[in-house]
């Protein structure tokens, strides 16, 4: 189910739009998701530099349409291009807080956490650092999410993750030799969430699959299209 949903979203034109702000995850029992609750750390793109609540609308709509009883929101982390490392650090802690708060309110609900890095170091790293903790050089240390949450976080999806490290069981796509700009040096920290984690990266996307760290930019959408063709036949 989740492979189909997240794969379909990646081949679509990713529209960046806004959702109603939500700054707390404490919700009434009647409002708990019976499908899945998705927390989406978006990508920052040109044309809307001041918004902190934009999400991947296509993906959000697929989740809500294909998994009845689902809810979703954009993680309101304060992205700042000039101080992106602090933004990622704060965003990872905020995502962890949203996961733990939501679980306290809705202990029977399942969650999906999603991160997308469009141009700068951000959404995908926020998500993977929130789940796995930090093990990349230059990034401020974040402890991993407590392993007990692996019963409730049933999908952890990254697109264009700058901490990508090849040949991990959760890697998706054809990047087998390249590294992210800030490669994860201790991928084993992700193991408690291995069944949920899917890290999508293809050759040509140097954010996650550069031959050397800090390689130049590459278009994102074409590499996702080739990956989606693989998902559609799996």
TrEMBL record:
Residues 1-24 form the signal peptide. GO terms for biological process: antibiotic biosynthetic process; monocarboxylic acid biosynthetic process. It comes from the Eukaryota. InterPro entries: AB_hydrolase_fold, Cutinase/axe. Pfam families: Cutinase (PF01083). Keywords: Disulfide bond, Hydrolase, Signal. Coiled coil: none annotated. GO terms for molecular function: carboxylic ester hydrolase activity. This is Cutinase. It comes from Penicillium chermesinum.
């Amino acid at each position: 189910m989740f492979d189909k949903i997240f794969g379909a979203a990646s081949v679509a034109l990713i529209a960046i739009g806004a959702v109603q702000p939500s700054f707390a995850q404490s919700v009434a029992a009647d409002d708990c998701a019976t499908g899945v609750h998705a927390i989406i750390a978006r990508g920052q793109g040109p044309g809307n530099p001041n918004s902190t609540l934009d999400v991947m609308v296509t993906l959000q709509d697929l989740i809500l349409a294909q998994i009845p009883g689902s809810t979703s929101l954009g993680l309101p982390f304060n992205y700042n291009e000039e101080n992106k490392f602090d933004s990622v650090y704060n965003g990872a802690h905020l995502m962890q807080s949203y996961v733990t708060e939501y679980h306290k309110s809705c202990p029977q609900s399942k969650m999906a956490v999603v991160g997308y890095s469009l141009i700068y170091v951000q959404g995908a790293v926020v998500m993977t650092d929130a789940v796995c903790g930090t093990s990349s050089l230059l990034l401020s240390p974040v402890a991993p999410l407590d392993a007990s949450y692996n019963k409730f976080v049933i999908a952890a999806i990254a697109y264009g993750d700058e901490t990508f490290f090849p040949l991990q069981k959760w890697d998706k796509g054809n990047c087998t030799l390249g590294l992210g700009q800030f490669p994860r040096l201790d991928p084993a920290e992700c193991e408690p969430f291995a069944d949920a984690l899917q890290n999508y990266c293809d050759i040509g996307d140097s954010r996650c699959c550069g031959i050397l760290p800090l390689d130049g930019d590459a278009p994102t959408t074409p590499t996702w299209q080739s990956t989606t063709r693989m998902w559609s036949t799996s």
